[in-house]
């Protein structure tokens, strides 16, 4: 299994307890009826050859990967009687997600670290129901021997 798949699988396990429907690289559209939902997807991956590993002639090359991980938190509603908004509900889910990821920042040894890298927030209030999405970006750093991306080197 490629290390990217291992990262997705580890995040699915780590986030299994969040108070929302969990999707990992969904193959279908997320319906409004299933909200709140959390969707995990992997974005671009930057790779840098570890120059120290390449320095010795005939040595095995180690490649450092900086994998972009996106966790989308989706919610809908019109607010509740306590005055809470959809943004409040999304923020509550983000607290759960951050705690779950922080509990093991190596994802069981799959990567050196997974760390937050920022977030974006979008809303659509065209109809009666507000739909909002906060995309929380993480960077997962992992190393592998060149030619063996299924074998992380930690």
Count of strand segments: 5
Quick one: CATH class? Alpha Beta
Please tell me the overall pLDDT: 85
Quickly count the helices.
3
Radius of gyration using CA atoms only: 18 Å
User: Within the CATH hierarchy, at the fold level, what is the topology?
Assistant: STM4215-like
Percent range for β-strand residues? 35-45%
Order of helices and strands: HEEHEHEE
Distance between the termini: 17 Å
For the largest beta-sheet, the strand count, sense and barrel status come to: 5 strands, mixed
Task: Please outline what is shown here.
The protein has 154 residues and is α+β, with helices and mostly antiparallel strands. The protein has 3 helices and 5 strands; from the N terminus they run αββαβαββ. The protein has a single domain, classed as 2-Layer Sandwich (STM4215-like), CATH 3.30.2000.
Tag the structure with descriptive keywords.
154 residues; alpha+beta; STM4215-like; five-stranded mixed beta sheet; 5 strands; elongated
């Amino acid at each position: 299994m490629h290390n990217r798949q291992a990262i997705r699988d580890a995040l699915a396990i780590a986030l299994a307890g969040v108070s929302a429907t969990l999707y990992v690289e969904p193959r279908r559209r997320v319906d409004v009826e299933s909200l709140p939902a959390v969707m995990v997807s992997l974005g671009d991956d930057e790779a840098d050859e570890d120059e120290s590993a390449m320095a010795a002639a005939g040595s095995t090359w180690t490649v450092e990967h900086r994998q972009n991980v996106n966790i989308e938190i989706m919610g809908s509603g019109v607010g509740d009687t306590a005055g809470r908004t959809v943004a409040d509900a999304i923020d509550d889910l983000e607290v759960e997600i951050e705690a779950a990821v922080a509990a093991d920042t190596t994802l069981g040894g799959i990567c050196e670290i997974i760390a937050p890298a920022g977030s974006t927030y979008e809303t659509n209030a065209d109809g009666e129901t507000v739909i909002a999405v906060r995309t929380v970006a993480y960077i997962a750093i992992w190393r592998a021997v060149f030619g063996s991306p299924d074998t992380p080197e930690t």
